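S.,

Sequence below, as promised.
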Amino acid sequence: MKQILILTTIILFSSVAPLFAQQDSFIKDYLERLQNSRKYLILVAETMPESKYNFRASPESLTFAENLMHIGYAIDWHSQSLLGGRESREWKTDTLFKVANKSKEKMIATIDNTFDEAIKLIKQFDTTKFDDELDYFGLNRTKRQIFLLLADHITHHRGQMLVYIRLNGLVPPRYVLFQ
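The prediction came back faster than expected:
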C-alpha cells in the first residue's frame, strides 16, 4: 500500500510540476521583455525634445506627452488593478498620469517608477491565477491574456511616439530586441 501511495505521488507530481515550470518561465520571459520595453520607451521619450512634447499628428491624436503618460496609466491599470486587484485609478481625477505641469524629466521619472512597481508586482504574481478571468471592456479575458494585452498596448502607443519623432525630422533610437 505504501508503494502505491509513493508511486501515485510521483506520477501526480511529475504531471503537475511541468505546468508550474512553464508558468514560471512565462513570468521570467515576460519580465525580460518588459525590462527591454522599458529601456526602449525611455530612449524614445528622451529622444524627443521637450519643446516637441505637445506635438500631435492630427487634431484628434494624443500629443507625444499624452501618449507617454497614457502608457504609464495603462501599465498601472493592467498590473496593479487587473493583475494585482488594487482599486483602479480614476482617469478623470487622477493627476499622477496627467501631463499638466510636468516636465519631460518628471514624465520620464513617472514612467520609470511605474515600470518598477509593475515589475515588483509581476515578480510576486501567483501563477496559479493565470486562468482567472475578468472583465476587459466587456470581454472575458484571463490574467495571462492581460499580461499580453499590456505588452501590446505599450507597443501600440510607443509606435505612435516613434512616428511623431519622424514627423519632427528626428531619428528614433535603434529598436531594442526582445520586447
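Residues 17-22 have pLDDT under 50 and may be disordered.

Coffee later?
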